# Entry
Amino acid sequence: MFDTALTANDFIFLAKGAWMTILVTIVSVIAGTVLGIVFGTFRYQVGPIWAAPLTFVLDIFRSIPLLIQLVLANAFLGTVLRLNLSGLTIACIVLSMYCAAYCAEIVRGGIEAVPTTTRRAARSLGLTWWQDMREIVLPLATRVALPSWIGLALGVMKDSALVYVVQVTELLRSTQILITRLQEPLLLLMICGAFYFVISFPLARFGGYLEKRWSHD
Amino acid sequence: MIEIENVRKSFGPLEVLKGIDLTVQNGEVLTVIGGSGSGKSTLLTCINGLEPIDSGRILIDGTEVHAKGTDLNKLRRKVGIVFQQWNAFPHLTVLENVTLAPRKVLGMARAQAEEIAVRQLNHVGLGDKLKTYPGRLSGGQQQRMAIARALAMSPRYMLFDEVTSALDPQLVGEVLDTLKMLAQEGMTMILVTHEMAFARDVSDRVAFFHQGVMAEIGPPAHIFGDPQHPETRKFLSSSRQ
Amino acid sequence: MFNYTFQWKQAMARLPQMLDGALVTMQIALLSMLLGILLAVVLTMFRLSGIRVLAGFTKTWVEIARNTPALFQIYMAHFGVASLGIYLNPFLSLLVGITFNNAGYLAENFRGALKAIPDTQTRAARSLGLGAVGAFRHVVLPQMLRISFLPMTNQMVWAILMTSLGVTVGMNTDLYGVTQDLNALTFRTFELFAIAAVIFYVITKVITLGARLIAARLFRY
# Structure
């Protein structure tokens, strides 16, 4: 069908890149979500004044390009602290913090969406703070936060395309390497784009569906 | 016995309780009436320990609610409270709403908690709604569920904070009937309400609050039939219209 | 504490060059926003036109913009378009890539904003004798842009951050590109990029705060 120089080996090369994209995404989203829940709960719990330092730090991750965050982390951990970390580790650390910064906002919004009167009712029955958090706030806040969280996870996947800068050969980097070698940019880019699209599109749709469904309750 | 001694409470510059003294005996039904801002609802949330107080003390069976060492979560098992807004847990079924606290707070097994919950739900007339989510219930049904939820903890005292004032008029009756039933069964209760006929009907004593002070207290026949305090008279004549 | 001597002075000496780069970064972002808004309005009109091909075109654009990496979109503008025989220089590739992304996201925001405008608004405008385009232009569009103001400022911040991707297609006059070139010259990676980070931070904050001030002035009713 296509007159192409693409070989089976090239496909394996692309698949390895795709795997790297998925690996970095999954690790960062999990770590970032855990951190984001801790940060977001903390911010809600202590109020805006005491949380100001944390808010400021998290805001930095949302206000400078991810590319620079990666370069800076790489230079700081490698050249300044002389830690011998792999590019993959650095990529995961930076993307986790990046994810956590956005996730903290989502978590805080979710908790704020639970009416205080409902929480008061739970406490009046004798539930402890933890029990209230687990039995009442978590399930209710999740409904509010899940659609945005799906969007965030997909955002992290798309932004993981930038970790090439710390020598991690993920999907887009693999594609670029093949473009340079094979000079078939359109075909290769379409394969690469299709991969992102096939993962992102249905999940984004699912998130939109959840948002619509739960907003009617 | 609930003993309230010289309790004061302010929200910022606004003093809402200006030294309240009040004792509620076991088995007694006390109704608190008064205009909005009279401090009557605040008193209930203070008794339950949901609000701190500035001075004075509240004793429940001799335990001081706001003392430092008091385990509030433990104390609250004794004191059920139902609010104006019924505050159903929307993600849990009616049965799960009622079994949550017995299971998590009292550590009951699911089967035992469900047995108690079913009994309480039957009691308030919701025995056929066990698997329903609160969102599908009427306001009156949700409020009765909230009452069953509090009763499932086998509290010794029940506090009701204007439980009918957020309901549509045609749903008020069913909730009042439930309260009346509890009163007849000998539950010790403090009710804050605007339903004067109901207060007259079920109370052992009625207290009238005015601007953070308990202006008058006595049997319903006295308060409604022969009020002494001018503010009580003013309030009752305006609420009759 | 560190086995590393920071040389801020040496890096700070390059600040004027970096500020020139920041100017280019802001130009690209602003241009891509203006073009993006324009295109998004056109895409929204396509969506509302009732013509299936046009609505489908909008849908495709929006979904590709939202479901693939921004860097992919810039590659497409550079390498992809080149294979069709159209060669864009780095500046244009970056501009086209970011504009494509902006237009897609903004069109989606506009769709959300339209839901908040009751149908009766259009009907009322039509009943006054305005045509379909006139009703859109004079009644729906102003409200839509107003509701979308906050998402638009967010997208503007994104546009600023996205300019850093230009380096991958050979862009070297924007803030990131300048910093990268200086780095190759001096190897003060941490110092140079830290300064660049601060400049980016200040730019994004100025945009966010400026937008808030504008919003407070514009939307008083």
